[in-house]
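Per your request, structure below.
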């Protein structure tokens, strides 16, 4: 089993930055694909950014150019650097892990393990 714990969320003004961290435990996730999703009440959970086992990255169009996903395999941790935040980025952000390590995994059902979520609020 893999446990994922997110940190780094909070309240920020529009135009500001936050860095989310996702610390994995239980197993080494260096060969897993990892991703960030987000949830807004009343809407389906949506893909934000992903990184595959070879550190190839892919993004939702709404965040491309503003968000950067990265991984530190030595720390078993994945990060999401969020710059130029907008009020519409307000959501609960979830970290997810895909055992198969596939590329371009953007569906909720592609992922095997999930964190508990962390709130990000962007004020206007």
């Amino acid at each position: 089993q893999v446990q994922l714990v997110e940190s780094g969320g909070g309240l920020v003004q529009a135009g500001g930055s936050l860095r989310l961290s996702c610390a994995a435990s239980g197993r080494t996730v260096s060969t897993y694909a990892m991703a960030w999703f987000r949830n807004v009440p009343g809407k389906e959970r949506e893909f934000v950014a992903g990184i595959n086992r070879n550190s190839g990255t892919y993004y939702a169009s709404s965040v491309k150019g503003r968000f950067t996903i990265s991984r530190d395999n030595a720390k078993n941790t994945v990060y999401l650097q969020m710059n130029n935040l907008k009020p519409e980025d307000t959501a609960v952000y979830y970290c997810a892990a895909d055992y198969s390590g596939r590329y371009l995994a953007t569906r909720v059902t592609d992922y095997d393990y999930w964190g508990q979520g962390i709130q990000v609020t962007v004020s206007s």
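The mean pLDDT is 96.

Regards,
D.
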